[in-house]
Specification:
Blueprint: H1 2-5, E1 9-10, E2 15-16, H2 25-30, E3 33-38, H3 41-57, E4 61-65, H4 66-69, E5 80-86, H5 92-103, E6 108-112, H6 118-122, E7 125-128, H7 141-160, H8 165-187, H9 189-199, E8 204-209, H10 213-228, E9 231-236, E10 254-258, H11 264-275, E11 281-285, E12 294-297, H12 306-324
Parallel strand pairs: 3-4, 3-5, 5-6, 6-7, 8-9, 8-10, 10-11, 11-12
Antiparallel strand pairs: 1-2
Helix pairs in contact: 3-7, 3-10, 7-8, 7-12, 8-12, 9-12, 10-12
The protein binds 1-O-phosphono-beta-D-fructopyranose.
1-O-phosphono-beta-D-fructopyranose (F1P) binds near residues 335 and 338.
Subunit structure: Homodimer.
Keywords: Aminotransferase, Cytoplasm, Glutamine amidotransferase, Repeat, Transferase
GO molecular function: glutamine-fructose-6-phosphate transaminase (isomerizing) activity
Length: about 350
């Protein structure tokens, strides 16, 4: 996280410098909509990025799996800014989506980790994530850094569009706190290892979150599937009552992402629905949750940045669950470093 922030924050003016963006102020002011494309973890960081851009720059934004987008003859709109996200920069579905967009005359930026990769080359500009090489196949630190890169991009767009400087300063202060807070989360690893041993016998796992918690729930569920091979589902918390509650039973525990924001009461009501069906609950929250069987407590930061910190203990949970089950974490089955087909 230090690396993605380094040299990019100007404290005097509470602004952000993104040298490679290649989007001048006039172009940035003309953006009516942002569409983010990526696959797997990159898509999930896109969901976080879309929320950050809506919250901090007030531009309508959404994310879609690039692997869907490229097959559906999408309407390409000149006032939409397209952003492709990729750790490797080589994922073929994402690259194909970028090429399709370029063919149709769209402006496409990249949020990419590997410098000089195919997606970095094909895009018109963008932000490098500087997470360093992902030594294992699954994306972990790159997920975190990409979310930080999106916070910087959202701040930048917000500032150009004359949104509150005070808000910018608040988020910048929050970003600066992240490295120490991440270290604090990592110091809780032993606790998470014990929890992983407790939940590793699950038949399946449910992950839920609402708004800022939802992309975290999706990513945590993907991480668990990728490395432990436990079946997992992720739902927006309010979707549970539209069918999936039927799956809840003691052998199907739920991981609930519960930031201490204005949705906490709603989220607690979801926990009650799960408890009423004898479901076990592991919460990730800013304070102990009495309705949960266990809580992993993470430090508080600015609410918009919650997805960044809350994802990390769940990466550790997936890692230790895989270890407890004797899986080869660095070589998960059926997963390539970059999916080039
Ligand atoms: C996308 C991705 C990863 C996943 C695995 C397969 O990669 O789906 O999220 O962990 O490595 O590919 P990328 O486009 O971000 O490199």
């Amino acid at each position: 996280v230090d690396r993605v922030l380094r040299g990019r924050i100007d404290d005097r003016f509470s602004t952000v410098r993104l040298g490679g963006l290649n989007l001048d102020a006039r172009e940035a002011r003309g953006v009516r909509r942002v569409k983010i494309l990526g696959c797997g973890s990159a898509y999930h960081t896109g969901l976080i990025g879309a929320q950050l851009i809506e919250e901090l720059a007030r531009i309508p934004a959404d994310a879609e799996p690039a692997s869907e987008f490229r097959y559906r003859n999408p309407v390409v709109d000149p006032d939409t800014l397209y952003i492709a996200v990729s750790q490797s920069g080589e994922t073929y579905d994402t690259l194909a989506a970028v090429q399709e967009l370029k063919r149709k005359g769209a402006r496409v930026l990249g949020v990419v980790n590997v410098v000089g990769s195919a997606i970095a080359r094909e895009t018109d500009g963008g932000v490098y994530v500087h997470a360093g090489p992902e030594v294992c196949v699954v994306s972990t630190k790159c997920f975190t850094n990409t979310a930080v890169a999106f916070a910087l991009l959202a701040l930048h767009l917000g500032r150009i569009r004359d949104l509150s400087v005070a808000d910018g300063k608040r988020i910048i202060d929050g970003l600066r706190k992240l490295p120490e807070q991440i270290a604090e989360v990592l110091r809780g690893e032993q606790e998470i290892e014990k929890l992983a041993a407790e939940y590793a016998n699950a038949k399946s796992m449910m992950f839920v979150g609402r708004v800022r918690g939802y992309p975290v729930a999706r990513e945590a569920s993907l991480k668990l599937k990728e490395v432990s091979y436990i079946h997992a589902e992720a739902y927006p918390a309010s979707e549970l009552k539209h069918g999936p509650l039927a799956l809840i039973e003691p052998e199907v525990p739920t991981v609930a992402v519960l930031p201490d924001d204005d949705l906490l009461e709603k989220n607690r009501a979801t926990l009650e629905e799960i408890k009423a069906r004898s479901g076990r609950i592991l919460a990730v929250a800013h304070r102990e949750q009495e309705k949960a069987d266990h809580t992993i407590v993470v430090p508080r930061n600015e609410p918009e940045l919650d997805p960044i910190l809350m994802g990390i203990p769940l990466q550790l949970l997936a890692y230790h669950t895989a270890l407890a089950l004797g899986r080869d974490i660095d070589k998960p089955r059926n997963l390539a470093k970059s999916v080039t087909v």
